[in-house]
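Reply to dn_fold:

You asked what the input looked like. This is it:
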Amino acid sequence: MIMSMDFYSAKGGSFHFSWSDWHTIFALAEMYGWNPVGTQPATFEGERQKGDPSQLWTGGYMSNDFQVVTAEDALAMSTALEAAIKDLPDRDLRPVTREMVPFRDGHVKEMEFLTDGSEDDPKLFWSGSKHKAYVQKFVDFCKCGQFSIC
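and this is what came back:
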């Protein structure tokens, strides 16, 4: 099962990444100058977590605990990713293997799978016009401001 990361904007929009997609887009933004400032802990029904906040929340981005990415941080991430898009190859250069996969109903279909380690190079991972367009959609989402990671 692949873990997913869902993002919900304070303005009503949403976005989705697989866990590995989120890690590579995060790394790509850092490669292009984004300096993550840390997330804010989630609040529910107007209540804050009790106790010393510094002991309860570390500001991480890699879990889906409803933490909040501030508007300023989201905008900074979008700026870095916009710079990255200009350098991403138009041709999809991600290494894939092709395998025949049997389905329960008896049919067999050829499918492509990314080779292990393909996430190691974020520029390679997001290469290709289809992937660049997805990065651009995330840039547009980030420009809307604050969002939660769920």
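The CA atoms of residues 92 and 127 lie 5 Å apart.
Hope that clears it up.
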